[in-house]
Amino acid sequence: MGAKHKASVNNFAGLITAYGQLGAPPGAFSVADNVDFPNSFMVEKRRGTLAFGSTGQGVPASLVSADPTGFIIANLAVDASLAVATKLDRWGYSTAIPTPGALTALNDVTTRMKGAIGRKNTYLTTQNGVVRLESDGVAWWAGAPSIVTSVDQIYTSAGGTWFASGATTSYRHVLVQYDADGVPMRGPPSAAVALTNVNSYAKAVTFGPLYLGRPPYAVNAVTSGVSAIYADPTNLRRIDLEVYRAVQSTTGTPNDEMQLAYRKTLSASEKNGLVIDGFVDQCPDEALGAYLYTNAISGGDTVQNGVSVGLAARNDPPPTATDVATFANRMWFSGLTLHHSLTFSLIAPGTTGAEFKTGDVVTVAGVALTAGSHFGVYTSGSISDNIRKTAMSLAGAVGLYVLPTTGVTAEYVGSPLSPGTVGQIRLYATQTARAAFFTIAVTSGGSGTAFIPDLSEAVRTTREDWTNGLAYSKESQPDAVPPVNYIRVGRGDIPIMRMIALRDALFVFAADGIWIITGNDPSNFSLTRFDTTFTLLARDTVVVLDDAIYAWGNEGIARITTSGVTLIDADIRDVVNQQRIAGVSTAWAVTDRNRKRVIFFLPNHVNTANALGSSANRALVYHASGSMGATAYSAAVNGRWSRYDYGVANAKTCACQARIGVATPFFLGNADNGGGTPNAGDETNGPGYSAGGGLYASGVAESASNAATDWRDRSNAATDVAITSTLRWTNATPDAQMVAQWMEVAALFAPSDTVAVMGAPSALTFGFKTEMQSTEQTVTWTRPSAPYINSQARVMVPRDAARGSRMFFALTHAVVSEYFALDGFGLWYEFSGHEVTR
Fold first, then answer.
1. Please, which residues have CB within 8 angstroms of residue 786's CB and are 6 or more apart in sequence?
2. What is the distance, to the nearest Å, from the Cα of residue 82 to the centroid of all Cα atoms in its chain?
3. Is 60 exceeded by the pLDDT of residue 229?
4. What is the DSSP letter of 592?
5. 3-state helix, strand, coil in the chain (%, to 5)
6. Best label site of 157, 165, 306, 723, fewest CB within 10 Å?
7. Sheet with 279-281, edge to edge strand ranges
8. How many helices and strands, by DSSP H and E, does the chain display?
9. What are the backbone dihedrals phi and psi of residue 406, each rounded to the nearest 5 degrees, phi first?
């Protein structure tokens, strides 16, 4: 027998499978299951999942953290259409989004709900439009309300003398909604309404009832593709009416530079009835106040790249989108769907024949509107005045009579500053829930030819899908998206999959590569092609950690910054390639900012018990923290890999990271769709919860007492499950032809000096096999009494598995509610001869 030799390992390279047993460096593991590498000198058991709360119904298809509100939003799949969204407050109590509750989210499982924070509110993507969840937990459709101005409701009157005889002025109206924190959101201005004082003496101006074009309504259930109006029955929000007026002119048409002439706060009945009570404008020109924000000259929001855009800077609501992100202090939206709309013009109001006249009927979205009853037909003025006034009256009637039951409204878009637009009306659906077209037609009176296009037969609306489109809000105004703030990225047939914002750039992941937006305002925003080779494996396999993007793409797993794309999966490329199987479109990732981990989940089995149809119990974990030392294997990014396995019975569907007090654990959606009974003791804070549809949090208590139960999994069946941590590695003699007698292995523990429960394990299982054996021999080690309790586990290699040039070691820890960590291995062997090939 030769001298005894020792080999030690105290620098861990993580999971490395792509280079073969002999090519892997020291400290590499061929299996590293359910372990973490907090640095290059330690390997420890992953923390367990504790039952945090139940969604009450359905399987979470996506989770969004609303950190300013303390909520976690779960997009639930109660059926194949992801039909309901529920919020879980930060203590895990499951309640529906208040006032009124249900919310239809995106139907496609591969297009899960996304969220971003803006001004303490959370903006969520749904198939019906972007939702604004405010800090008090009430959800509203994003965007401020709008108002329809009708010429039927404005006239000169007694009560003032500011409006001179023979003078002309014009008006626009704006609604201002305040969120839960009192921050104002101004809506788009109404169409301009001109008025001339034809009396021989000075007058004031009286307004009759005004109609809301896009009401300030909270999220409501959607039935049969039409969103019912749900305004503000409990008077939760303040909404003001602002009336802007041009300085009167006695020599011609007044300019469009308007100033504030009147303001009032709406009552609850006005908001919910969609009609604003009348009022009198008594403000003389000398007392006019603030300028309207869309004024071409004096407006504060109208200059883009040194050019005034006027009304094109109006605060339109965000479009329906598949993704949302915050960059350059603006809210960005991608994968856009514009609402169904139709623009048409009235050209011939009158009294006889084919002219559009009193008694004629226009049917909009199935609602019949009769001229002279629901709206006025004007014939006594000039041709242009008659067209303009009749068209504005018709638009107002759509807002008053059609909107409440159909979600379809109208606005007069003609402008004296735009020749050829007189009489122009835009019909549009307030939500994309109305996915099908709607129509308009003259159904009685034979005057369809009085419109362009001809409305003798029903004309359908159209909807644009900008799958390659981006839109961005005004600075610090997430609800305001002007028409000039839309961008197309690349080819129209190549959709945008995701947007990810870093500090200095917004990355746009399209189906054919990566684009990047830089700059800090519209004057210097720049869209350029960043990379033409990297494409995402799935929409949700991309996350951010420490101002770097980590993404699983068709080319591999990469770290992406403004410096470029760096593949980081060379060590496990064989595993990554094997994982690209059916079902990758529903893969997803989550970051753990506390422990610097990126966790990639790939659905690896079909679960017919839940509505998603597939879920993930395994994940590849990238540990981005610490230093590996100088090796050639992952020197570019100094990270290590491991793998998690939660067990098929406890598979997960989605994840997010959220703040709970001072901790920010990551949360996992549970794939179980069952109901079950409350499980006392499962909670972290609050009562027990049902196992079905549960939300599981990783390490909820890790920032508190570090209890031993942090190192267990709470199963869907409400039982404690041991986390099985397994490490496998290979040691070889210096010369592959030299045969060794492997004698002993020592596992060196890394217990905590400050946290008692993070001590030495009570039991381990060692496995041994050389290239000369076909069966692994196992040895169970049990912790002895002091003084060895916190030092190491030493095990003799079984004689039947001791001879060979390569030793395949295995180490398994599977004790429930017990911490386990190592900071090194020691190995002893003697040379006993050479292998001979005959």
1. none
2. 15
3. no
4. E
5. 10, 45, 50
6. 306
7. 154-157, 204-207, 279-281
8. 5, 69
9. -125, -20
Task: Tell me which H or E stretch contains 334.
Answer: strand 330-337
Burial label for 307, CB within 10 Å (0-12, 13-18, 19+), is exposed
Who contacts 329 (Cβ-Cβ below 8 Å, separation ≥6)?
A: 475, 476, 520
Q: What's the pLDDT at 567?
A: 95
| DSSP-derived pairing of the beta strands 168-178 and 184-186 | antiparallel
**Across-strand partners of 711?**
none
CB 147 within 8 A of CB 212: yes
DSSP secondary structure of 731-753: EE-SSTTEEEEEEEEEEEE---S
User: Considering the entire predicted model, what is its pTM?
Assistant: 0.87
Average pLDDT of the chain is 80
Cα–Cα distance for residue pair 147/143, rounded to 1 Å: 13
d(CA 715, CA 62): 20
On the question of pLDDT at 192 being above 80, the answer is yes
For the sheet with 439-444, list strands across it.
367-370, 361-364, 439-444, 459-460
- DSSP one-letter string for 16-44: --TTHHHHSPTTEESEEESEEEEETTEEE
Cβ 161 vs Cβ 281: under 8 Å: no
**Distance (Å, whole) CA 703 – CA 68:** 20
Beta bridge partners of 214: 146
Whole-angstrom distance, CA of residue 324 vs CA of residue 344:
32
Q: How far apart are CA 458 and CA 361, in angstroms?
A: 13
For the beta carbon of residue 108, count every other beta carbon within 10 angstroms.
14
Token pair recorded at residue 284: 């003389």
- Which three-class secondary structure state does DSSP give residue 443? strand
Q: Quote the distance between the C-alpha of residue 776 and its chain's center.
A: 48
Q: How far apart are CA 671 and CA 742, in angstroms?
A: 45
Q: Which residue has the higher pLDDT, 474 or 235?
A: 474
In angstroms, the CA 809 to CA 768 distance is: 5
Beta bridge partners of 765: 780, 812
In degrees, rounded to 5, the angle at the alpha carbon of residue 637 between the alpha carbons of residues 636 and 640 is 120
Q: Which residues contact 389 (CB under 8 A, 6 or more apart)?
A: 151, 376, 378, 381
Tokens representing 777? 């021999």
Question: What DSSP state is assigned to residue 708?
Answer: G
Q: What is the token pair recorded at 51?
A: 């039952």
Give the separation between CA 308 and CA 175, rounded to whole angstroms: 23
**pLDDT for 325-378, tens place per residue?**
999 999 999 999 888 889 999 999 999 999 999 999 999 999 999 999 999 999
Q: Which of 44, 31, 36 is nearest to 597 (CA)?
A: 36
CA-CA distance, 280 to 243, in Å (whole number)? 11
Helix (H) or strand (E) holding 118: strand 115-118
C-alpha torsion sign, points 48, 51, 54, 58: positive
* Residues 653 and 647 sit within 8 Å (Cβ to Cβ): no
Instruction: Reply yes or no on whether the pLDDT at 692 is more than 60.
Output: no
DSSP for 350-411 reads -SSTTSB-TT-EEEETTEEEEBTTTB----SS-HHHHHHHHHHHHHHHIIIIIHHHHSEEEE
Instruction: Indicate the SS3 state at residue 801.
Output: helix
How would residue 704 be classed by pLDDT, with cut points 50, 70 and 90? very low
Whole-angstrom distance, CA of residue 206 vs CA of residue 73: 47
Q: DSSP state, 267?
A: P
619 Cβ neighbours under 8 A, 6+ residues apart: 599, 600, 601, 602, 643, 644
The neighbour count for residue 181, using CB atoms within 10 Å, is 12
Structure tokens at 696: 């599981």
Q: Look up residue 604 and give its two tokens.
A: 């690896």
Give Cα 89 to chain centroid, integer Å: 18
Report residue 794 as tokens. 């030493």
Q: Rounded to 5 degrees, what angle do the CA atoms 401, 404, 405 make?
A: 95
Dihedral sign (CA 618, 547, 319, 524): negative
